[in-house]
Amino acid sequence: MKDISCKLLVIGAGPGGYVCAIRAGQLGVDTVIVEERKPGGTCLNVGCIPSKALIHAAEEYDRIVHLASGANPLGIRTTQPEIDLPQTIAWKDTIVGRLNSGVSGLLKKSKVKMVQGRARFRDGKTVEVETETGRQIIRAENVVIATGSAPVELPGLPFGGPVISSTEALSLTSVPERLVVVGGGYIGLELGTAFAKMGAKVTVVEAQTRILPQYDADLTRPVSKRLQALGIEVMTRAKAKGLGKGGSALLVETESGSEVSLPADRILVTVGRRPVTQGWGREELVLDMDGPFIRIDERCRTSMRGLYAIGDVTGEPMLAHRAMAQGEMVAEIVAGHQRVWDKRAIPAVCFTDPEIVAVGMTPDDAQRIGSEVRIGQFPFAANGRAMTKLGEEGFVRVVARADNHLVLGIQAVGQGVSELSAAFGLAVEMGARLEDIAGTIHAHPTQGEAFQESALKSLGRELHI
Ligand code: FAD
Ligand code: NAD
Questions:
Q1: 236, 271, 306: which is the final residue of a domain?
Q2: Is 258 a domain residue?
Q3: Do β-strands 201-205 and 178-182 pair in parallel, antiparallel, or remain unpaired?
Q4: Looking at the structure, do residues 230 and 366 belong to the same domain, yes or no?
Q5: Which of 167, 198, 293, 417 has the smallest CB count inside 10 Å?
Q6: Are residues 134 and 32 in the same domain?
Q7: Beta strand pairing call for 163-164 and 31-35
Q8: Could you tell me if residue 62 is inside a domain?
């Protein structure tokens, strides 16, 4: 096989890698991307997209179950629905398939060469790829490591049999009768809630004092309430120890130090993700590390010249949009543009029920850096649109500097608030002041009005409460 030489080689076609390659191709950079599995990476194949498809199906099913129960105030009556999980999974797979083709098409349109196989460094400028038709050598002036992340395995609970990761959970063909979820973070709660809505008896085992410990208690309270309403049992300060006899139970050490056995048909372990830093020849390089992650600077440069790293392999937050933003920036740097990481905030959305959005600083963050702040919080209970959607739980909260009213952060919890993340992100990124948000006409009736009202409230000028 003839060796390939290029200006840019990207290893891994997840959101970080494929965006980097597309942008580089658009800028006329001679680019090759190597992927051992499918284009789109974790996010598109076994992460963001399939999980949101499953969450949506579960929500729809739950809505109809609720209507069928006759306990709804809308006056709609229906008969008991059924969910055909294999068909739901097949539908999810068609969405993934369409997006796989979409990414391949975009790479092709940008004249990026795609090589299928596992890449391995020989040295900082040379990579070999085991392809179906033999070994391909690729020499590149610049290399981007975008190898992503993989689920963390617990020592006493290796994946296999009843113990599954999110990847297997997204392709189950029947709803487990009893599902124990280890880890009450993003994945555990998003998927745990979906399976509970589809009929599983779900128990969440969380080591910390509360679920979603990365968010403050005000934001997570409506989620806890909903978990309870769905019949999901949450055990906090509890640690998974291993499988019980016969593999159909999880042994858990409780807060008091006693051991309980939780019967389970499946045990979904979602205790975080680890960067993929093995298996691609890191030992051939001299890369500085930052704990388990590859150390990068504000241009995503590693400690080796011409070698960049982006996405989950470089650290928290492990989010697809962070990876994409880094990918786009690195492509432009390689093309000769002056770029540096100058983002003010990376929005985070947790697709629980209700959803949580966080952009920029929380009140606690602001306090920690000693900023005097003004906080405005507006409840959805006072928002007309939320009422018409039976979504009165939750609020929008804005955090701004007390002296000049610069918006430092915005958070919300409520039904469908993920779509407000764009408005929140824009406000923080553009350096909005409270008066800018308060002075913007927000369409009525929308949940977005709660954003305007939160700013008005922080200025002491609230109208609808
Ligand atoms: P990845 O997407 O992990 O891609 C890395 C790619 O590199 C993979 O395709 C892999 O096959 C390839 N690769 C690795 N090593 C080699 C090699 N040696 N040779 C060739 N190819 C290689 N994030 C969000 O922002 N929003 C969400 O809603 C969300 N939901 C999620 C739900 C789940 C269940 C999971 C698991 C994750 C979710 N995430 C979400 C996180 C998101 O998926 C990741 O942050 C994102 O995929 C990281 O992108 P990346 O490009 O860094 O790596
Ligand atoms: P996570 O960090 O969100 O949650 C892991 C949870 O497991 C934590 O609450 C932690 O306290 C708990 N835990 C750790 N060890 C434990 C043990 N032995 N027993 C019981 N609990 C234990 O991790 P995740 O849910 O696996 O998700 C991984 C990453 O994927 C997230 O951090 C996020 O970056 C990304 N993700 C994002 C989204 C989104 O943006 N909506 C969705 C899913 C995943």
A1: 271
A2: yes
A3: parallel
A4: no
A5: 167
A6: yes
A7: unpaired
A8: no
Q: Is residue 203 part of a domain?
A: yes
Residues 59/197, Cβ–Cβ less than 8 Å: yes
123 and 209 housed in the same domain: no
CATH number of the domain that 182 lies in?
3.50.50.60
Q: Does the CB atom of residue 188 touch ligand 2 within 6 A?
A: yes
Question: Are residues 300 and 425 located together in one domain of the fold?
Answer: no
The SS3 of residue 194 is: helix
With contact defined as beta carbons under 8 Å apart, do 51 and 187 qualify?
A: yes
Q: Does residue 84 lie in a domain region?
A: no
Task: Give residue 73's pLDDT.
Answer: 87
Ligand 2 in reach of 213 Cβ (< 6 A):
yes
Q: One-letter amino acid identity for 175? A: V
pLDDT tens, position by position, for the chain (465 residues)?
A: 899 999 999 999 999 999 999 999 999 999 999 999 999 999 999 999 999 999 999 999 999 999 888 878 888 989 889 999 999 999 999 999 999 999 999 999 999 999 999 999 999 999 999 999 999 999 999 999 999 999 999 999 999 999 999 999 999 999 999 999 999 999 999 999 999 999 999 999 999 999 999 999 999 999 999 999 999 999 999 999 999 988 899 999 998 999 999 999 999 999 999 999 999 999 999 999 999 999 999 999 999 999 999 999 999 999 999 999 999 999 999 999 999 999 999 999 999 999 999 999 999 999 888 889 999 999 999 999 999 999 999 999 999 999 999 999 999 999 999 999 999 999 999 999 999 999 999 999 999 999 999 999 999 999 999
Catalytic pick among 56, 321, 442, 444 = 444
Does residue 57 contact residue 32 with C-beta atoms inside 8 Å? no
Q: How many CB atoms neighbour CB 126 within 10 A?
A: 17
Q: 28 φ, ψ to 5°?
A: 85, 15
Its domain, for residue 319, covers 4-46+89-151+274-334
- Residue where one domain finishes, among candidates 306, 334, 362: 334
The CATH number covering residue 408 comes to: 3.30.390.30
Cα angle 96, 97, 101; round to 5: 115
Instruction: Specify the residue for token string 């007309």.
Output: 384
- How many separate domains does the chain show? 3
Ligand 1 pocket, Cβ-based, cut-off 6 angstroms: 11-17, 34-37, 41-43, 47-48, 51, 118-119, 146-149, 166, 187, 276, 279-280, 311-312, 318-321, 323, 351
Please say if 464 is a catalytic residue.
no
Q: What do you get for the CA distance between the two ends of the chain, in Å?
A: 71
